[in-house]
Amino acid sequence: MSASISASPLARRRRRSALLFLAPACAMFLIYVIYPIFSSIVLSFYDWDGVGARTFVGLANYRELLHSDTFFTALQNNVLWLALLLLAPPIGLLLALYLNQKVRGIRIVKSLFFSPFVVSGVVIGLVFSWFYDPSFGLLKVLIGHGVPVLGDEHMATPGIIVAALWVQIPFCMILFLTSLTGINPEVIEAGRLEGARGWSLLWHVVLPQLRPATFMAITLTVIGALRSFDLISVMTGGGPFDSSTVLAYFMYDQAIKYFRYGYSAAIAVVLFLVMLVFIVYQLRRLLRSDN
């Protein structure tokens, strides 16, 4: 009886200490994440130039979006980004399986594969802009003639996505490589004793243990595809003729160039809802597979 009475104040002190430690992080999350989300949702119902008084317009910004050709082009480009950038996790897994071996010089190879991820997006955009340049770029040297990749409305978006893949693949590779090094070798050996070899060993023994890394790789790749901005800003500026713009750049364009903050907030809300759908879908798949 006395032990339970003495333990109660100790438990309260521990809970109080935990709340005190969590309070700064929770406050920052509320200020820098939750508040901006709700503020953007409220702002999307107004017409505001960032200086004068706000004018309530209801759903007018959303109705204008539905009649905007640029919005549907940006949405279509986001879908293309999503479809092609999802090649990064399987390619990253293949590279991780290749690099997860103990041979001489493998650390140097790992560093070369990982190096694109630590380079700034602006630098990568400039490098690929020079690579695609039809007058002196390396692509011209490789194929023998210049191709205006970034100047062609049908080739600009795929050209930028190639640059994005060059960064995203090493990121996924590191996630899988870290998980591979943490796999219990006894589980692999048990699988081999049961007759698992090659693809069977990978599918039934290795991949189930990489499920958390797979979830992180796919989720972060989806988020990166939907919020793509820096490479587009550096390489094409959304052109030519808005053919390579995406929702994030379209949102920035309307706010910074045309001072349409309410309309830009409506685009941000649509982008947030699209992200939310994909993230919830991935979380439900993960929870269902765990159950």
From TrEMBL:
UniProt keyword terms in alphabetical order: Cell membrane, Membrane, Transmembrane, Transmembrane helix, Transport
Record localization: Cell membrane
InterPro entries named in the record: MetI-like, MetI-like_sf, UgpAE/MalFG_permease
Lipid bilayer topology: Multi-pass membrane protein
GO biological process: transmembrane transport
Residues of the ABC transmembrane type-1 domain: 74-282
Stored Gene3D superfamilies: MetI-like
Transmembrane spans: 20-46, 79-99, 111-132, 160-180, 201-226, 261-281
Record GO cellular component, one term: plasma membrane
The family this protein is said to belong to: Belongs to the binding-protein-dependent transport system permease family.
Name of this protein: Sugar ABC transporter permease
